[in-house]
Amino acid sequence: MKYFVVPGESRHLDQATRAELRGDFIECGDGITHYEMAGPEGGEVVVFAGSLTTPLFYWDQLVGELHSRGFRTVTFSAYGRGYSDRVAAAYDEALFVRQIAELTQRLDLAEPFHLVGASMGALVAMAFHIVSPCGHMVPYEEPARTSLLFTAFVDTARKESSR
């Protein structure tokens, strides 16, 4: 499976290597985060937090569906995953919550945004919600928009299962 680290990996994550890769890189407090922000300008923002072993491209099919529905997306690789830095810190909830907070601040996501997590990313998303000001989360009081977001998940899953 291509998502796992390969023994003997020799590629160094320096500026020259990063220039050859897709996406963008941003310095956060604990290290460099690999991310992609895409979709229609002005669209509601959906931030994705991946699971224990998944880099940002895990979400590629879903974000394409969301872009077609007018959403703007931010995907990123957590520290130690994908092309984000392997930081010298405890890989705990606080680290990953801090990474989301710093990434969204540095990207100037001042408006409320949707935060979606898979597996460990869901736990990090819930922890982020506890410590984040309420203004940074889209309230569920907007069922029409939430429904549109949910149907994109369902439609992507259907397309995958029909392959």
From TrEMBL:
MF terms (GO), sorted A to Z: hydrolase activity
Keywords: Hydrolase
One Pfam family per UniProt: Abhydrolase_6
Start and end residues of each AB hydrolase-1 domain: 56-130
Cited SUPFAM superfamilies: alpha/beta-Hydrolases (SSF53474)
Record flagged with keyword Hydrolase: yes
Domain of life the protein comes from: Bacteria
Entry annotated with the keyword Hydrolase: yes
The protein's name in its UniProt record: Alpha/beta fold hydrolase
The organism of origin for this protein: Nocardia gamkensis
